[in-house]
Each structure stands twice: as structure tokens, then as C-alpha cells.
Design a protein that fits this description.
This protein is 9% helix and 29% strand. By secondary structure, the chain is mainly beta. Strands 1-2-3 form a 3-stranded antiparallel β-sheet, with no helix packed on it. A hairpin with a 2-residue loop joins strand 1 and strand 2. The protein is extended.
Length: 58
């Protein structure tokens, strides 16, 4: 399986005009359907649905 680098050639720009990084879901999931994300001491689950949508739950 080949890993593609995150797309960052055209960064999104939020309201404060500071560019924000863009990561591909492939880079985050690395071939899995779910991945755990730790943030501020809490564990979140990012998963791909049958309709190929992303859902983030605590």
C-alpha cells in the first residue's frame, strides 16, 4: 500500500486569513476504517461510514 503525502499545495484559509493545514483522510486512516484521535486527554473515534462519509465521536 502506498501512502500519499498530505495535500498542502492549496491550503484552506479560515476567517482570520491564517492558512490551515489540509490532511487527506487516507493519511489519517492509513487503510483502516476507524482511527482513535487523542485530544486534550480525551479519546475520539473517527470512522468511515458505509456511505463513505466521516463521523467523529467521543
Amino acid at each position: 500500500m502506498t501512502h500519499l503525502p498530505p495535500k498542502s499545495t492549496i491550503p484552506s484559509t479560515p476567517l482570520n486569513n491564517t492558512p490551515r493545514p489540509r490532511l487527506s483522510s487516507q493519511a489519517l486512516l492509513q487503510g483502516a476504517n476507524t482511527v482513535e484521535i487523542e485530544h486534550a486527554g480525551q479519546c475520539y473515534l473517527l470512522r468511515v461510514t458505509r456511505d463513505n462519509k466521516l463521523i467523529l465521536t467521543k
